[in-house]
């Protein structure tokens, strides 16, 4: 059964460029409630763990370097049909292909530095949320 939560993180480029406030405002305006939020500087090891599924890909090392280049802002969000709707809301991984008005169309710089992450399934949303937040932090009722 689909849950109503997804996991996102504002990536280092968007934080460094001062876009985190605008992105959070758009997320809230689109109807997502913020269940949990923090600011984190990942270690290389943590970035490698988070993106372990990509470890054989040619961009893996560069991705881990990028993800540790500045702080990120991980969040757990709540809304009906959260996972699928949020993927549409942020737009394509490649910003050149992202629809007008999406977060990536507005703020992404490249395929790698693409401003924001969104979980691709309910199962991954739960795993990724627990990567950054304790059970207690995720208990919040909105
Ligand atoms: N070909 C590539 N070159 C460089 N970086 C890439 C490439 N493909 C993916 N990435 C980076 O790895 C991340 C994870 O890739 P994935 O295919 O899971 O994309 P996604 O599901 O759209 O992104 P995310 O999981 O961050 O929401 C991308 O968001 C991007 O930062």
Automatic annotation (TrEMBL):
One of its GO terms (molecular function) is ATP binding. Pfam families: NDK (PF00334). Signal peptide: none annotated. Its cofactor is Mg(2+). It comes from the Bacteria. Its EC number is 2.7.4.6. Gene3D superfamilies: Nucleoside diphosphate kinase-like domain. InterPro entries: NDK-like_dom (IPR034907), NDK-like_dom_sf (IPR036850), Nucleoside_diP_kinase (IPR001564). Keywords: ATP-binding, Kinase, Nucleotide-binding, Phosphoprotein, Transferase. One of its GO terms (biological process) is CTP biosynthetic process. This is Nucleoside-diphosphate kinase. It comes from Sandaracinomonas limnophila.
């Amino acid at each position: 059964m689909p849950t109503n939560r997804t996991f996102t993180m504002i990536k280092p480029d968007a934080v460094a460029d001062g876009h985190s406030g605008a992105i959070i405002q758009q997320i809230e305006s689109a109807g997502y409630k913020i269940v949990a939020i923090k600011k984190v500087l990942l270690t290389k090891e943590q970035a490698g763990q988070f993106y372990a599924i990509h470890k054989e890909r040619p961009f893996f090392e560069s991705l881990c370097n990028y993800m540790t280049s500045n702080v990120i802002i991980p969040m757990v969000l709540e809304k009906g049909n959260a996972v699928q709707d949020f993927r549409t809301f942020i737009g394509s991984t490649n910003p050149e292909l992202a629809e007008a008005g999406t977060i990536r169309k507005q703020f992404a710089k490249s395929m790698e530095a693409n401003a924001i992450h969104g979980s691709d399934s309910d199962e991954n949303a739960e795993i990724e949320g627990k990567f950054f937040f304790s059970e207690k932090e995720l208990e919040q009722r909105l």
